[in-house]
Amino acid sequence: QTTKPKMHVAVLPSPGMGHIIPLFELAKRLVVFNHDIHVSFLVINTDQDNSTARDQYLYSTPLPPGLDVVDIPPVNVSDIVRDDMLLATRISVMVGESLKSLKSVLIELGKLEALVIDLLCTGAFEICGELSIPVYSFSTPSTTFLTLSLYLPTLDREVEGEFVDLPEPISIPVNTWEDFEPVPLKAIREHSFFLQLPTPPVYPIGPLIKQDESLSSSDEECLTWLDNQPADSVLFVALGSGGTLTTEQLFEMAWGLEMSQQKFIWVLRKPDDADASSTFFNVGSDVNDPNSYLPEGFLEKTQGVGLIVKSWTTQVAILRHPSTGGFLSHCGWNSTMESITHGVPIIAWPLYAEQKMNAAMLTEEIEVAMKPVKGPGETVVRREEISRVVRLLMESEEGEIIRSRVKKLRDSASRAVDNGGSSYDSLSCLVEKWKNEIKP
Ligand code: UDP
């Protein structure tokens, strides 16, 4: 009696919770979706990345059968990573150093039908070319961003050749769904002539969002507090894994929230005047005392109205709670997906990376967000403006219209991933393709 050979797929995210979370959720979905798939989830470890939130997420909950977490040998990058480097450059350096051992890690894993990477791990293409492993690139940002990325080579003829020379066709699973970004998806599929590139097949399989998590005592406290609030009455304030405010902006945010007289939960971090992504590599590890940087009197004045959580919380559990009625977010793509999937309207507070693009899309195109603006000549958004927008979202008729629009999108997202929905079918196609790759 012969046993059916399993498909073996490896998944490799670059450092950063915004990359690790959706790829880990993909890995989990794959093994649950099809029991003939074995997934090896590869983790990059460097001496610069000290996120307790990451370790908690990856190593503290039992894994579904068929999924293994495999640590790539750790590397020291302190000598080459400088504080003044752009975030994307720092991540690329970490990935570059770590991928020096990718070949031996992949050989050790044995036969693979595919390697799924994210857009900062493209160094894997060459190695996979040598090993004849097809590479799939998971787009952690929006399809709008992906379309732009695809267009870049036509602007820069020199890199065009690299796409053509790839040993395998590239397919792109995308964290979106058909009805959410129909225009860029159509652009990729139908306008390869316009893009002047052999555009790869795209598989919209999203939204892929964080599911179950273990709860800390402060998470439990937040959820119990939410249980005692009316439906849609609480604003959740969180800026992703890395986001931080300047000292001045943090003051304005605090008094703006207080002035709005709305209930809130605020994931609070020490301000940083130089870097808006200052907790990116130490998520959940920045132990600090909010009393030392919050404006005097703020905690007393907001007692019972606002809840402060230090550094990190289970965002999805909060967004899922029926009392949560708004999300002041930096508009990272995962946060965007999580908010929409739970029918929560957004106050857009973009900070870095492609967040401004997401914020523009959410406010102007999809119309599920409002955006506070700086006054002329101002370097920060003032408290009056913050309070105005918070009240508008939480209390006004305009806010109600946005809320009902996002609830419709929530239903569309849920239809997409259900059995027979567009994302479900897309994932089935992809798995079918891998099945055909199985070599005896
Ligand atoms: N997140 C969380 N708790 C927090 C802040 C963020 O669980 O206190 C999660 C959030 O649910 C999302 C991810 O971290 O899944 C952040 O990804 P996103 O793409 O929104 O932003 P990035 O951190 O990459 O800027």
From TrEMBL:
<dbReference type="InterPro" id="IPR035595">
    <property type="entry name" value="UDP_glycos_trans_CS"/>
</dbReference>
<dbReference type="InterPro" id="IPR002213">
    <property type="entry name" value="UDP_glucos_trans"/>
</dbReference>
<keyword id="KW-0328">Glycosyltransferase</keyword>
<dbReference type="Pfam" id="PF00201">
    <property type="entry name" value="UDPGT"/>
</dbReference>
<comment type="similarity">
    <text>Belongs to the UDP-glycosyltransferase family.</text>
</comment>
<dbReference type="GO" id="GO:0008194">
    <property type="term" value="F:UDP-glycosyltransferase activity"/>
</dbReference>
<keyword id="KW-0808">Transferase</keyword>
<protein>
    <recommendedName>
        <fullName>Glycosyltransferase</fullName>
        <ecNumber>2.4.1.-</ecNumber>
    </recommendedName>
</protein>
